[in-house]
Structure formats: C-alpha cells, structure tokens
Amino acid sequence: MSDGQIVVSGLTKQYRRVRAVDNLSFEVQPGRVTGFLGPNGAGKTTTLRMLLNLVKPTAGTATIGGHRYADLHDPIRTVGAVLEASSAHKGRTGRNHLRVVAASAGLPASRVDDVLELVGLTPAAKRKFKGYSLGMRQRLGIAAALLGDPQVLILDEPANGLDPEGIRWMRDLLKGLAAGGRTVLVSSHLLSEMQILADDIVIIAAGQLVRQGSVSTVMDSMSTVARVRVRTPDTEKLTEALAGGEATVEPGPDGVIFISGVDAPAVGAAALGAGVLLHELVTERPDLEGVFLELTQGKAAIR
Ligand SMILES: Nc1ncnc2c1ncn2[C@@H]1O[C@H](COP(=O)(O)OP(=O)(O)OP(=O)(O)O)[C@@H](O)[C@H]1O
Fold first, then answer.
1. Cα-trace Rg, the chain
2. Is residue 15 within 6 Å of ligand 1 at its C-beta?
3. Where are the alpha helices (DSSP H) in the chain?
4. Ligand 1 within 6 A of CB of 19
5. pLDDT of 184 higher than 70
6. Residue of the nearest CA to atom 6 in ligand 1?
7. Positive or negative CA dihedral for 245, 246, 248, 249?
8. In what residue span(s) does the ABC transporter domain sit (predicted)?
9. Looking at the structure, do residues 124 and 183 belong to the same domain, yes or no?
10. 152: β partners
11. Whose CA is nearest to atom 17 of ligand 1?
12. Which of 26, 27, 34, 208 is the most buried if burial means most Cβ atoms within 10 Å?
C-alpha cells in the first residue's frame, strides 16, 4: 500500500442525538488533490477529526498509509493538518510562532524559513501575529502543517475568508504539492472552487457517502442530467428520427434544440441515418454546483 493513501472504512460517529458520520467509506490517493464536499453539517469536520485521532469513532476505521493516526511512527512527518484558521500567541511574530511549533515537534529550526518561503510569508515573518490578516493566518497555518514536510496534507475549509488572490494562491500551492506526489485532502462547500482545484471528489451528505471518483467520473455518472445542444437547419426531420426512443427534444433560444435522454453520439448517428445536416452538436453538462445540489438534495435539510 502506498504511504500516502488514506482509507476510510465504515466510519461512524454517533453523538447523543446526531449520527454525524454514518458508515462512511472512501479512499484518497497520493499525487492528487481530493475535494471533500458536503453541505454544512454533512460531517466533513467530524470525519477529518476522526482521521487525525481527535475524535474517537463509534465504529469503523480511518488509516493513513495503512496505519491509524494514533499508530503512526512519526505523525508530524507523515501528516500535516490545518483544521481552522491558525491561532498563535498574538504578540509573537510569524517566524517565532513557527520556531516554537518546530521546537515542540522536534523539527529543525531550519525548516521555519523554508516553509515561510513556501507560503509566501517571508516578507511578513517579523510582523506580529495580531497584525496578520485572515489570509496571512491561513498561510501561517499551512506553513505550520508543512514544517514536518509531510506526505499527507489535510485542510478543513482552507479557502474560508480568502480573497480571490488568496484563493488562487492556495490553489496553486495545493496543486503543486499534489504534483510533487503528496496526498492533499481539502474539505469545502465551495463547489465551484473544487471543480477547478480537485482531481477527485468525495461527496457526502447527512454523514453518508453520496459519490466518489474523479471530477469527470462523478460528472459523467450524472449523464441523466446532461443534455445535447444541437443546431440544425432541419429540426423537424431530426425530431422525427429520434422519436420512439429515449430522447426528449426541447426548443432553445435562437433555433437551438436541447435533447436529453440520449448522448451526443446517438444524436449524431440518428442525424446521419436520416440525412440531417448538423451545424452544432455539443454535450452540455451541469457544473459541479448543479450536480452537487441534485446529489445532496433533501439531505442538507435533515439537520
Ligand atoms: N461534539 C459534537 N457534539 C454533538 N454534535 C456534534 C458535535 N460535533 C459535530 N456535531 C454535529 O454533527 C454534525 C456534523 O458536523 P460537522 O461539523 O462534522 O459537519 P461539517 O460537514 O464539517 O459542517 P460545516 O461545514 O458546517 O462545518 C452536525 O449536525 C453537528 O451539529
């Protein structure tokens, strides 16, 4: 098994009234950014906390490289986590904060300047934490998580409170870390952002798995909601050619027609068979936001 693979298996957390996580299983691969998505209260934070041994599961297991977090030989060098906007002693500079963290974790002080550079905080290293913006605090949190040069990075809602520039920076950093072979697991409810950032996605709702796979696989699994956009000078003939099958044809603006129930190759074949000229034949997929809403519909409102 790869060192950086995360395996969640039958994971369950029952609080007194709420089943926060319900028999959840999924895998996260190294070398990829995995988006962990769900509406508010879906159980994302609870899952990440169980993965990091901060919350005890009611049932099931969560392992990193085949080991539970509690059994890792060198957790600091294996997993870095940013669970909430970093807090630090207000009067301490960013650099001193990281020095303290490094020393208490038995890591060399030389790593401090490396990670400051990596997160772009070198110019602010000597400024006091109390003067840091939320974006700078996020960067400092990530810097602390990277001190041990871990194989696995886990971030809970890292884009929260970041401006567009900060979000772009975060995206580039995380993609770069994954490209270097690390496992990057990022929770979010910012679906549009995950569509750009993530290679794989795990979608949960009401503590249960809804979908997992590459972004494109999950989109493809929603082919029922994809539609084919067609432009042809002979709408009637094409509609006739498609009649009697699964296809539903609806008129769109400017002479376009939308066909659902069949895919683009089927429409193309029907057109060819009927001798219909096509000017446009495009598969239109809903964006991740639409897929997400459809997949989690109803479940978001459960709690
Ligand atoms: N310590 C706790 N005691 C009781 N219930 C809890 C506890 N922690 C979380 N919960 C409940 O478990 C459910 C899942 O919460 P969790 O924070 O894991 O969701 P989330 O997906 O991270 O949501 P958000 O995006 O809002 O943080 C919620 O209903 C929450 O109220």
1. 24
2. yes
3. 44-51, 75-78, 94-104, 110-118, 134-146, 164-179, 191-197, 215-220, 235-242, 264-274, 288-296
4. no
5. yes
6. 15
7. negative
8. 6-231
9. yes
10. 79, 183
11. 45
12. 34
Neighbours of 286 (CB within 10 A): 15
Q: Which domain holds residue 275?
A: 227-284
pLDDT at 218 over 90: no
User: What does the chain come to in residues?
Assistant: 303
Q: What percent of the chain has pLDDT over 70?
A: 94
Higher pLDDT, 78 or 286: 78
- Pick the atom of ligand 1 nearest to 42's CA: 21
39 in contact with ligand 1, CB cutoff 6 A: no
Closest ligand 1 atom number to CA of residue 204: 21
Amino acid letter, residue 200: D
124-160 pLDDT tens trace: 889 998 888 888 888 999 999 999 999 999 999 888 7
The alpha carbon of residue 156 and the mean position of all alpha carbons in its chain are separated, in whole angstroms, by 10
Q: What is the pLDDT at residue 86?
A: 63
Residues 104, 22, single domain; the answer is yes
Q: What is the CATH number of the domain that holds 45?
A: 3.40.50.300
Ligand 1, from 18, 189, 299, 302: best to mutate by most atoms within 8 Å of Cβ? 18
The verdict on the CB of residue 151 being under 6 Å from ligand 1 is: no
